[in-house]
Amino acid sequence: MMRQHPAVRGRIRVLEKTVMPEEILMSGGHQMKSAAQKRKERREVQEKMRRSGADATPETRAAFVERLRAKKELKQYQFTDLLEEVKRENEATASSSKGTPGDDDEHEEAAAQDEVTRLLEWRREQERQAAIATARHVREVEQRIQRSKSLSALAKRIRKQSQGIKRQMEQRRESRFKPGATRRAR
């Protein structure tokens, strides 16, 4: 939890009440794992350590977990990396098409490649927009759920108070007619 983005650090109550920007929501560091997810991850690490034959000292385990995390981060493709890659490809195709003005085949190929990269870029942008929209929607739903929980708790508290007040009034009403009660208690 503490290794995450500074905006994400803190207690769960703080997280529930703050709306984070899309880039943080998209980064993946905001995910808080449930107990079952943590258990599953621990079992996977234990299984991989057992298969690799490493001794189970805390230092080797920490190094092993760090290597697994690094592998996972390498596998993840971020949208910014994809966009930079497309820009580099575009620059490369533009420089190659400028360098050889003679061949029409190469020019057609570069134009087709340019169309493909433009389409890829458009698709990636669409995916990114959709992912941002879903992240925002999930956050709004979570906040609505949180608000409804706090409102229902408040309603329950008010209901209990009003029941207590009603009970007191009924007891006073009943004590009026009790023969053994003192004058002041009535």
Automatic annotation (TrEMBL):
Biased composition of type Basic and acidic residues is found at 42-53, 167-177
Q: Where is the composition biased (Acidic residues)?
A: 102-112
Question: Which portions of this protein are annotated as coiled-coil regions?
Answer: none
Per the record, which residues fall in region Disordered?
23-60, 85-119, 135-186
What protein does this entry describe? U3 snoRNA-associated protein UTP11, putative
Organism name:
Leishmania donovani
